[in-house]
Design a protein that fits this description.
10 helices; alpha/beta; nine-stranded mixed β-sheet; about 350 residues; 2 domains; 15 strands; Dihydrodipicolinate Reductase, domain 2; globular; Rossmann fold; single chain; six-stranded parallel β-sheet
Amino acid sequence: MITVGVIGCGYWGPNLLRNFAENESARLAWLCDVDARRLEAMGRRYPSAEATRDYRRLVEDPRLDAVVIATPVATHHRFAKEALQSGKHVLIEKPFTTSSREAEELIGLAEKSGLTLMVDHTFIYTGAVRKIKELVAGGDLGDLLYFDSTRINLGLFQDDINVVWDLAPHDLAIMDYLIDRRPAGVTAIGSCHVKPGVENIAYMMLLFPDEFIAHFHFNWLAPVKIRRTLIAGTRKMIVYDDIEPIEKVRVYDKGVTTTNGEGGNGGIDEKEAAYRTLVSYRTGDVWVPKLDGTEALTHVCAEFLAAIAERRAPLTDGAAGLRVVRLLEAAQASISRGGQLVKL
């Protein structure tokens, strides 16, 4: 049984505590938070675990196998570094770190010590995203054309990070998992309407060496909550709506078929005639696949524990976290330069 300690009992921490407490392969040994009232509340819920406001007690405990970090991103590197140096496996919340330099250092420490380092890119473990991966990998969509994602709502406004660093890790991680290719450049623009210097709305575009393209819209200042992604291929298209309670994934047998044609046609302009000849629209059935309804975080915790036990890299390892952080850095650089292309 793997002993686990959780640092951070705030917004996401209670979900991690619950899942590790319920996993038969783990024993929840420690919980930590600087907020005494929150710590007391979690301590009553998990009385068998020791509670502390000092994270060093977890790091220095030789009986503890793994540390889970669910704290503000500015603390991730320091907590994870000390845990790895003390021989602890680490599961860390998104975003992985505040910079690629920090991420690379943590990856190096984990590899040198033979420890598991995993990033909680939760959406990768949802039944919806895993089904989409199955369809993409199986060639059901044909050649991929674009990835278009919208993640907007009213709040939650952050003080330490902007809307890109808060919301983009979800969609960038999903894209990185689903699309087997690496972007060549990033452009992004953003605006600060509430707090100077903290963007609350942003548009981000990833450019690839071929004609594939990815576009993202992030917003804390929207009247509605939308979590929708479109993935188009030459054969089929997918709409993934995370807000939809039942039919989260819809597969559309729709697209455009191109055929070779001749040029001019009587008095019709040659370009218009060629367009009419070359393009035709295809409309078929809509399919709603059955999805695994297990809570994603259950799979996250199980994957972390299995990776430790089997001494293998987890699905969302440090390298996956680093790829996302590099995109976040590039997007922030582009925003600061007024939307200028940042090459990767």
